[in-house]
Structures are given as C-alpha cells and as structure tokens.
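Lecture 7 notes: from sequence to structure.

We start with a single chain of 75 residues. Read the sequence below before looking at the structure.
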Amino acid sequence: MNTIQIAPTYLLSMPGGSEWLIIILVVVILFGAKKIPELAKGLGKGMRDFKEAKDGFHNDIENGMKPKPEIEPKK
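Now the structure, written as tokens:
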C-alpha cells in the first residue's frame, strides 16, 4: 500500500495573488463592504489588547526576577 507524503513546507505556504483575490472576494460577499472597516477596527483593537497584555505579563515577570531591597530592622 502506497502512502502519500506531503512536505511540511507545502502545508505552511502563504497564498498567492489569485488566492488572495478569491479570499477578499469571499469576505466582501459574506460581510458586505460596509462591515469590513468595522471588522478591521475590531481586529486592530484585539491585536492592541493582546500586545498590551503580553507586555504587562513580560513586565510582571521581569519585576518578579529583580532582587527585593533588604529592609533594615528598626532599633
């Protein structure tokens, strides 16, 4: 029995010019031209929120790794 082996690079390749055109046409048909700016705005807001959360998480980790100042006992 023969099996077909597909190289991983074929599975992860980016769409070409005509494929992008078809994708854009399908999006316009499904959502309409008036909804596309709203979708783009929502996508941008989501990306911004994700970046802020990532940066906040990164800052929390860096602050947690810093040595804490020693507190001198009161006399």
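Residues 38 and 44 are 10 Å apart (CA to CA). Keep this in mind for problem set 3.
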